[in-house]
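Q: What would this chain look like folded?
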Amino acid sequence: MSPKNVVFKKTSKDKSVGVYMGKRDFVDHVDFVDPVDGVIMVDHEALQGRKVFVTLSCTFRYGRDDMDVMGMAFRRELYLSTRQVYPPLQDREKGVHTRTQAKLLRKLGDDAYPFFFEFPDNLPCSVALQPAPNDVGKQCAVEFEIKAFSAESQDAKIRKRSTVKLMLRKVQYAPEGEGVAPSVETTRDFVMSEKPLHVKASLDKEIYYHGETIKVHVSITNNSNKTIKNIIVSVDQVSNVVLYSNDSYVKCVAIEEPGDSVSPGATLQKVYKLLPVLANNRERRGIALDGKLKHEDTNLASSSIIKEGVLKEVLGIMVSYRIMVKLIVGGMMGSSEVGLEVPFKLMHPKPDAVRWRRRCSSRSLSAPT
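A: My prediction, written as structure tokens:
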């Protein structure tokens, strides 16, 4: 994520406008979203009497821009808001909403003007589907962008030389509180078997952080006369592309198959360890990733948390995770399967929580023995 005390700057080719922002990651707290704020620097000589506008947009892209079908591009604008920055429509002081803006204005002088947008609470977070290694062009993604430009009017033709764009990210962090540790169990009866098979799978907690090992506790009581020939434990990522077709993509992102078996009348208590990370899935097409800024790495997409009452159809790509426990049961007529699904969330911790844990860890290491 964006480091502290860093100013992001980008200027148009003709030097007429420049964008200055204190951050490019904006947090969706479910109940509200961090507002987007920054400063536009103008060069009056390069402007040559033109006005300056700034636009915040959210776009869902599901194909390359050059893949038009009957004049329709494979992209849809989910949100678009435009402000006139220069000439200012209000006193400059009234447009200052944050300390970052105030500091930038003091540093940049009288040719700098603030801008401010409030995110609606029904927009998706930044997420993209990983292309195959040989795919070209832009990937299927939800993207956010700040665009500043100079033109005679808002509706006039915009020149590329007078335009500057800066990609943003809308992110979610793990909510506070542990939640209820998920647990699922099932009992399966078989023909020609007087007693059933009982299976239980549970996790230590509901929310796991990216890069954290997941321990799956599996308990099997096999009172049947069947033999469990194999046990497969995996992590599935489920991506629902709800905007245009309601497609669902299920991708296994971690798997453990040690070849365990359970004989009739026997039991098994075992903890399986799984690590769902992008490093083991970089070549696989269609896996959902957190949105990334240029030249930065990313990770598997975080679980989507949706505000109650928001229409899912406008959220672009929704991501969820589940543990799959699959038992291969042998029999006279061939093998059958018994399966369990245990849902969980995979997210980033809040940066403040990370700093607190590091501080506590350093204190414990430096404490006298």
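The CA atoms of residues 131 and 139 lie 6 Å apart.
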